[in-house]
């Protein structure tokens, strides 16, 4: 259960919606990355580190045939726990995380989107996604 | 010990995790998961991500299982698990020592985790908290 990326929470409480992928975006959007919405309401990489609001991608990859055919990705927001490898830089338990301009989670300044619950031995993280105001 | 979850379990996320040996918890204790995946009491030094324990580690079934149930989300709860202080409705709250709630101040390095909604019994610090 803890050896690969996975959503640990049910889909009952978070909000899920779909948006088209920005035509300007290279095909970099993958499952469990964090994206923003552009002026046309299309999913795109965040414009800068620490940007908010961001949404977690639930669709596997924009390169998947079904996703390409639909031209849409499923996005999720709310509070949930996830095992993810979409992280850059070293992090430790208890660290606040922001969404980077490459759609990954990292330590840094900006809006906190979640917290490192646990660093697993295989390099994956258990993250509690929970937007939080930090002093 | 006073604790009542005022939000339905269908509106919050509930999960269980093993309790670290030697740690005791009661319903309403603020906890975190340590590096071994075990539940320990939250402290200002290790405050996030914080969860609310809804199990009592002294109950035979909990002791036998060795795991406790945790909740998080946008929930309301009645609890008396506070650091000694004077509380008023609207006070922001953060993680205090030993898994208790405390009033959030400008000098705290921990985030706001909830707000006092109603003070029911000031003498015994029984309050309704909106946990965020």
Describe the structure.
- Chain A is built from one helix and eleven strands; from the N terminus they run βββββαββββββ.
- With 135 residues, chain A is mostly beta strands.
- Chain A has one domain: Virus Head Decoration Protein, Chain: A (Beta Barrel).
- In chain A, the strands form two sheets. In chain A, strands 1-7-11-10-8-9 form a six-stranded antiparallel β-sheet, with no helix packed on it. Chain A has a five-stranded antiparallel β-sheet with strand order 2-6-5-3-4.
- Chain B is mainly β and 132 residues long.
- Chain B folds into two domains: 71 residues, no CATH class; 56 residues, no CATH class.
- Chain B has one helix and eleven strands, in the order βββββαββββββ.
- A six-stranded antiparallel β-sheet of chain B has the order 1-7-11-10-8-9, with no helix packed on it. A five-stranded antiparallel β-sheet of chain B has the order 2-6-5-3-4.
- The interface between A and B is medium-sized, with 25 and 22 residues.
From the alpha-carbon coordinates, what is the Rg of chain A to the nearest angstrom? 14 Å
What's the order of the H and E elements of chain A? EEEEEHEEEEEE
Outline the low-pLDDT stretches of chain B.
none
The CATH topology of chain A turns out to be Virus Head Decoration Protein, Chain: A
Mean pLDDT of chain A: 89
Provide the helix percentage of chain A: under 10%
Secondary-structure-based class of chain A equals mainly beta
Mean pLDDT of chain B: 94
Strand % of chain B is 35-45%
Coarse shape of chain B: globular
Strand arrangement, largest sheet of chain B?
Answer: 1-7-11-10-8-9
SSE order of chain B: EEEEEHEEEEEE
Number of helical regions of chain B: 1
**Domain count of chain B:** 2
Low-confidence stretches of chain A: none
Number of domain units of chain A: 1
Quickly count the helices of chain A.
1
């Amino acid at each position: 259960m803890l050896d690969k990326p996975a959503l640990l929470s049910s889909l009952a409480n978070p909000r899920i919606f779909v948006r088209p992928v920005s035509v300007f975006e290279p095909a970099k959007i993958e499952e469990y990355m964090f994206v923003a919405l552009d002026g046309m309401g299309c999913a795109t990489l965040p414009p800068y580190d620490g940007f908010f609001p961001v949404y977690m991608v639930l669709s596997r990859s924009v390169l998947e045939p079904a996703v390409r055919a639909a031209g849409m990705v499923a996005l999720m927001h709310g509070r949930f726990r996830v095992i993810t490898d979409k992280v850059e830089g070293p992090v430790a338990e208890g660290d606040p995380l922001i969404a980077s301009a490459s759609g990954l989670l990292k330590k840094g300044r900006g809006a906190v989107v979640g917290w490192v619950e646990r660093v697993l031995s295989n390099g994956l993280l258990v993250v509690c996604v929970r937007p939080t105001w930090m002093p | 010990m006073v604790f009542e979850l005022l939000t339905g379990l269908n509106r919050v996320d509930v999960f269980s995790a093993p309790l670290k040996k030697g740690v005791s918890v009661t319903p309403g204790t603020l906890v975190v998961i340590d590096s071994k995946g075990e539940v320990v009491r939250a402290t200002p030094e290790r405050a996030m991500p914080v969860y609310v324990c809804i199990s009592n580690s002294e109950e035979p079934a909990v002791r036998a299982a060795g795991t406790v149930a945790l909740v998080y989300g946008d929930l309301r709860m009645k609890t008396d698990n506070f650091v000694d202080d004077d509380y008023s409705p609207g006070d922001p709250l953060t993680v205090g020592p030993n898994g208790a709630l405390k009033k959030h101040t400008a000098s705290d390095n921990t985030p706001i985790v909830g707000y006092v909604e109603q003070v029911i019994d000031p003498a015994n610090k029984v309050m309704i908290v909106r946990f965020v």
